[in-house]
Amino acid sequence: xxxxxxxxxxxxxxxxxxxxxxxxxxxxxxxxxxxxxxxxxxxxxxxxxxxxxxxxxxxxxxxxxxxxxxxxxxxxxxxxxxxxxxxxxxxxxxxxxxxxxxxxxxxxxxxxxxxxxxxxxxxxxxxxxxxxxxxxxxxxxxxxxxxxxxxxxxxxxxxxxxxxxxxxxxxxxxxxxxxxxxxxxxxxxxxxxxxxxxxxxxxxxxxxxxxxxxxxxxxxxxxxxxxxxxxxxxxxxxxxxxxxxxxxxxxxxxxxxxxxxxxxxxxxxxxxxxxxxxxxxxxxxxxxxxxxxxxxxxxxxxxxxxxxxxxxxxxxxxxxxxxxxxxxxxxxxxxxxxxxxxxxxxxxxxxxxxxxxxxxxxxxxxxxxxxxxxxxxxxxxxxxxxxxxxxxxxxxxxxxxxxxxxxxxxxxxxxxxxxxxxxxxxxxxxxxxxxxxxxxxxxxxxxxxxxxxxxxxxxxxxxxxxxxxxxxxxxxxxxxxxxxxxxxxxxxxxxxxxxxxxxxx
Length: 505
What we know:
The chain has two domains: 168 residues, STM4215-like, CATH 3.30.2000; 330 residues. About 5% of the residues have low confidence. The protein is mostly beta strands. The radius of gyration is 25 Å and the shape is elongated. It has six helices and 26 strands.
């Protein structure tokens, strides 16, 4: 991940568009290599070596900040060229700040010349103290020293530049395809002042409507679980399609600190008809998954006393198309206070083969059951109005193409108050009438503006009820529940939201 970040910082996006690092790229091109120079490559070239990952030390836990030493060796047959490249690199890296991104221009810098995807390609705009580059979150990057030398055997001049870097160690480093971070206000923007894209106010403030939402994740280009590479190396960017009207805009909120129930976490409030679309919707539609694991923390306002249904997580598009959705519903049967029960259901829509080479949409379910039945002592205090954790994995069965399967885990505030984190997982599966596509899932919208639609197998569901989104992580792979990677992701999310201290209503 550090190497990927160095590539973008030093050479940008090559000869394409307005590359702020074109002066470096013009000299070295793509000749940037880890550890050694391959044989028969052009010069000048730069070799990078990453050394000494040293976490900051904090009491009783592993710190999120990592310090590394970076060695850059500039090599060429000409001393003048070595010196020229070294000077450019030094000027670029020392006290690095992604100052090429700006909140008032769409003509320069990473991610600012991609039309509808402006301010979202190689780094989010105006990133503040933390520099998001190549999936890495850099807090500082500083020059240490340099050593010049000459290789008599190869007849090459060399200049070795040494830098110190601190970066944040979080879920982005585990390879998430889409990650939403609501604690960094620089990853959101509001108040479009013109129909020209993008003119907005950044960073956002609490209780403002979100017009742009950036994710700091960058996926490796060789991931075979994704059909299209159209977005590889590009930061996802969700926006309000209504432009200046704020018609569809959700609101950034913050929990009221009231220990032990809340920890003052930021969240997005999606009311009815509020949604965000991928700024690169055409690419997102062509980006299809054959494996994924999804993690979230959400709550469903009003679900304690009434049945609720929402396209809570994401969906193929904002209106007509149902596929690519993952949804939750609650069904209140009678009055829970006098013998009634609460059912919780989770499901989605996948791409199914229509038998003639085309695609249709097929509903599937991955959770269904009574979760609260007070008269029998089953989670009597459960409320989905409190934030809850949910994780689910999806894949096609290896021997049966008509079968989707995976694992899930639901942890509510009641679970924590009674059991804590019980590490209880369950498997799920659901059949298609024909065959699920190899790459069966895609999406482009957060929440929905459609009131209801036929899920072709899961019934007709209202997809527009309000919900609050606290966390959202999509991994383009099936992660075994209970594995070290799964536990790391889960515990990072749960601890961030202080869910171990949450209590029920």
